[in-house]
Design a protein that fits this description.
Distance between the termini: 25 Å
Shape: globular
Order of helices and strands: EHHEEHEEEHEHEE
Largest sheet: 7 strands, mixed
Radius of gyration: 16 Å
Strand content: 25-35%
Structural class: alpha+beta
Mean pLDDT: 94
Strand order of the largest sheet: 2-3-1-4-7-9-8
Length: 180
């Protein structure tokens, strides 16, 4: 599961005209949406500037954690491109990402008249909490997820994080780039 969130978005949306906010969101969503599909992710939802993506369902794939981290790094790179245009317009926006691998229950969520296909479980909560802690240009993950991709990426260990709703501190790692 991968969560992404724009840093600085609340301050931006508080000071910008609604049309400007919509224009930024449309461009951001279009760019991230393309990458989600390029890496065979499943978009669970857009929530303003927040996006949740999961992998390995509805189409199973053996290398889903690899695809997730490659997508997250591609998103980070794409936001760097978008950021150049945003900065020219005075928009101080950047991206934070949280990523976790594990098991979730998948299915229809909602009520009659409005159903969405979604993922529920500790893995989604962990990815969301890691995203909340991620600073601009960070992709945070935990030890379990890192163990699946450590031969693929360069990373830096961070201090343990006490995440909201998680009983024990979580060993956190910032994914820096793909290994050469």
């Amino acid at each position: 599961v991968v969560f992404l969130d724009l840093r600085g978005f609340t301050a931006f949306s508080d000071s910008a005209d609604p049309e400007e906010v919509m224009e930024v969101l449309r461009g951001y969503h279009a760019a991230m949406g393309k990458l989600i599909f390029d890496f065979d992710g499943t978009l669970e939802r857009f929530a303003g500037d927040g996006i949740m993506v999961f992998f390995n369902d509805p189409i199973p794939c053996a290398d889903h954690t690899d695809k997730a981290v490659r997508m997250a790094l591609a998103m980070q790179s794409k936001v760097e491109e978008l950021r150049a245009g945003w900065l020219k317009r005075g928009y101080e926006l950047d991206l934070g990402i949280g990523m976790a691998a594990g098991y979730a229950t998948l299915g229809n969520i909602g009520f009659e008249g409005r159903m969405d296909y979604g993922a529920i479980g500790n893995v989604t909560n962990l990815a969301a909490r890691l995203c909340s802690e991620a600073k601009a240009r960070q992709i945070l993950t935990n030890q379990r997820t890192l163990s699946k991709i450590e031969n693929l990426v360069e990373y830096e260990p961070l201090e343990e994080l006490q995440l909201k709703g998680v009983s024990r501190p979580v060993a956190a790692f910032n994914i820096v780039k793909l290994k050469a």
